[in-house]
Amino acid sequence: MNIPKISHFIRGALMGVADTIPGISGGTIAMIVGVYERLVTAISHCDTQTFSLVLSGKWKEAAARIDLLFMVTLVAGVVFGIVTSTVPVLHLLENHLPVTFAAFTGLILGSVWILFRRIPKHTFVTTLSLVLGAVAAWGIVSLNTMSGSTHLGYVFLCGMIAICAMILPGISGSYVLLLLGEYAYIIEKVRNVVHLKTNLNELTVLVVFACGCVIGLVSFAKLLRWLLKHFHNQTMAVMCGFMLGSLKCLWPFQKMLEVAGKKEFVALPSEAITPMLVGHVAVALVGGLALIFVLEYLASKLSSHS
After folding, report:
1. Which of 122, 244, 262, 295 has the lowest tally of Cβ within 10 angstroms?
2. Residue 267 β-bridge partners
3. Under a CB-based contact definition with an 8 Å cutoff, are residues 186 and 19 in contact?
4. Contacts with 232 (C-beta within 8 Å, 6 or more apart), sequence order
5. Do the Cβ atoms of 234 and 244 come closer than 8 Å?
């Protein structure tokens, strides 16, 4: 495997890890590591035109149109990231949530600074777009959690909705699944597959969920590509706003509890917020900020080989 393939696999793995964490978006990581617009373009090209090229035997043209080598390597990394991080992420959320959320708060704050700085021209409209994006994301993550359902039709719909959030920086697909009441249900199926304890019913649920993801992903990517093409600066500013607004669900002084079979985040009681915990949270926040600038540096190095 050459340097570009390795770099794309690593980027995909980072996106996969992010998508297992409620409050973090794989789209955020894609923007940080510099593959977001290329990814959206490639996904949006999975359409009837590409299908026609395949049917007519023009395999090379079809592969080039959807940036196949890039996509296969990136998706392989995403799958690897999701499968290998599901269990440790659940452990961190259940046992070290304040520090984990603080670190990711630092990551997002640093990301917003970097990405907003990359917008070529800052105007009143881009600033307004940033504010509106932040308000919209804040409103979304403030919604009450739904009860959820095990019906395959609902699972399919959740896949369509969650995948749209996953490619939007700042709006976490995992958090959307939490709001829809399906996060614990889906993540449990993934964990059982990892531990080789799954069955046909669970595999059926995951296949239906994946089908919803594919259909939602292609449809939404076309809209995003059009927005980036015609309103690039404003779209990027809105996405930065999404990232800022999503910080509400990453408030570090929470804990994760299982209520009626579903995992929920509740605020820590005041007596549990000790000076030592505040210190740990502060260190994790600064560490997250530092890490994002390291990631930006590594992304610039990887880009030079892509």
Report:
1. 122
2. 254
3. no
4. none
5. no
Where does the pLDDT of residue 23 fall: very low under 50, low under 70, confident under 90, or very high at 90 and above?
low
- pLDDT confidence band for 72 (50 / 70 / 90): very high
More confident residue, 51 or 165: 51
d(CA 141, CA 29): 19
CB 150 within 8 A of CB 262: no
How would residue 30 be classed by pLDDT, with cut points 50, 70 and 90? Answer: confident
Q: Check if the beta carbon of residue 250 is closer than 8 Å to that of residue 97.
A: no
Q: Side chain identity at 217, as an amino acid letter? A: L
Of the chain, the percentage scoring pLDDT greater than 70 comes to 90
- Helix ranges (H only) for the chain are 3-19, 26-32, 36-44, 48-55, 59-65, 68-95, 97-118, 124-141, 152-166, 173-179, 183-194, 200-230, 232-245, 275-303
pLDDT value of position 126: 92
Q: What pLDDT is stored for residue 19 in this prediction?
A: 73
The candidate with the shortest Cα–Cα distance to 171, out of 267, 66, 68, 249, is 249
Burial (CB count <10 Å: 0-12, 13-18, 19+), residue 32: buried
Contacts 24+ apart (CB under 8 A), 222-231: 222/44, 222/47, 224/40, 224/44, 224/167, 225/40, 225/41, 225/44, 228/37, 228/40
Q: Which of 1, 20, 4 is nearest to 263 (CA)?
A: 20
Q: What is the pLDDT of residues 255-282, one digit of tens each?
A: 777 665 556 677 888 888 899 999 999 9
Q: Quickly tell me which residue has 């079979």 as its tokens.
A: 261
- Tell me if 77 sits within 8 A of 15, measured CB to CB: yes
CB 15 within 8 Å of CB 9 = no
Distance CA 76, CA 9 (A): 7
Angle of helix 124-141 relative to helix 232-245, nearest 10 degrees, comes to 40
